[in-house]
Design goal:
By secondary structure, the protein is α+β, with helices and mostly antiparallel strands. Helix content is 24%, strand content 23%. Strands 7-6-10-8-9 form a five-stranded mixed sheet, with no helix packed on it. Strands 2-1-5 form a three-stranded antiparallel sheet, covered by helices on one side. A two-stranded antiparallel ribbon has the order 3-4.
Amino acid sequence: MKNFFITTKTASRWAALGVLVGLLPACAGYSTAYPPAPVAAATPDYNYIVGPGDTLNIIVWRNPELSLSVPVRPDGKVSTPLVDELVAQGKTSVEIARDVEKALSKLVRDPVVTIIVTSFVGPYSEQIRVIGEAAKPQSLPYKQKMTVLDVMIAVGGLTDFADGNGASITRASEGDKRYSVRLKDLIKRGDISANVEMKPGDILIIPQGWF
């Protein structure tokens, strides 16, 4: 009976030790559930896509009275003096310029149009979203070669309760695949090897730490 008691007690201790060992990665702030995010992610052929809230400077060559700066409305459209409504959302500046030329050609001879984007918000599908234990969780317009360090500077860093090394990126462009990122190592320890590039539509999730 005594041997059974000792065996049971010993087994309980081993079980408790096993639980503690299992918690160590989480307490240490490391996420092992997802593969590390690739360092390089930007594509060289990326073109900025216009979204609601952007401002477009429309220049019509030799027609200054038709040249103006207009905001992209919440419905994704713009209006000019001779074009009542034109869809701008989801298009590049070059595509919008060709659309304006086509609309103006009914009233203006051989119009030549240039579109310059002067303020950037971008479509929701391409914005970078930061949620969880960031100082200022928010959505950010994607910029070519944007890194997770750029994102963290924009959101004011981590809160005191953040599990920085337990953070992850959900990548919409890859079917919502999850990657782990080491924000604590990057921000608190200056480990530049933990800096990785973002892609349009990424969601950066920063969980709360155990303590």
